[in-house]
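Weekly structure sync, notes
Attendees: PL (lead), two postdocs, one rotation student
Agenda item 3: pending single-chain targets
PL asked that the sequence for the first pending target be pasted directly into the notes so everyone works from the same version. It is reproduced below exactly as submitted, 138 residues in total.
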Amino acid sequence: AFFATKLEHESKHCNSKGFQRQGSSCFDRVYTANQNCGHAYPTFLAVLWCAGLLCSQAPAAFAGLMYLFVRQKYFVGYLGERTQSTPGYLFGKRIILFLFLMSVAGILNYYLIFFFGSDFEIHIKTITSAISPLLLIP
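Predicted structure, written out during the meeting:
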């Protein structure tokens, strides 16, 4: 909602009709940042749900909240200069990678249970709970 509100405000500020890309460079930055966030959202939702369902809910929820904060930082950084958005982008990639690895660990644990009868769920939850605070390190 914040991104859409900023886009609408810049659209009205630039006196353009609707959401057309012709306008000021500020409108172009807001529009591009909004599109980038919108395109990254389905990937985020997929890995968040998989990590939460297949591995551990608490670290996945923590990483999800961190990702939303990081996308906000990316968006606001994109409004300034494009180099200001780089830390938010890189931080977001690291969180997506963490969620993806959690999903892979959950899938591997499922197949280990199915084929070999070995359950490593407690170990995986302990590791992910221990690693998730490391996401706060810039």
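Discussion points:
- The chain has one domain: 1-136.
- Residues 55 and 106 are 4 Å apart (CA to CA).
Action: rotation student to compare against the earlier draft before next sync.
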